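From the shared-data thread, chain only:
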Amino acid sequence: MRKLYEYWQMGFTLASQYQQLLAWEDARQARIARERAEANAAEQTRAMLAANPSGQLGRSQLDDEQALKSAGLL
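Structure, as tokens:
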């Protein structure tokens, strides 16, 4: 009976070590995904500021005739 318990305990230990390895791999992949998301957000912010350097995006829209006329462009 004791040998059976030792085998069960060894199997349980191996299973929990395997689960720990899976958790570490998931954490590594989550760190990579977070770094990519932060880089994409920073690039999107740079692109938005390059498109509108004043930083006032507000309610702008493309081909707004009234805004173009008031700016003297039409």
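The two ends are 93 Å apart (CA to CA).
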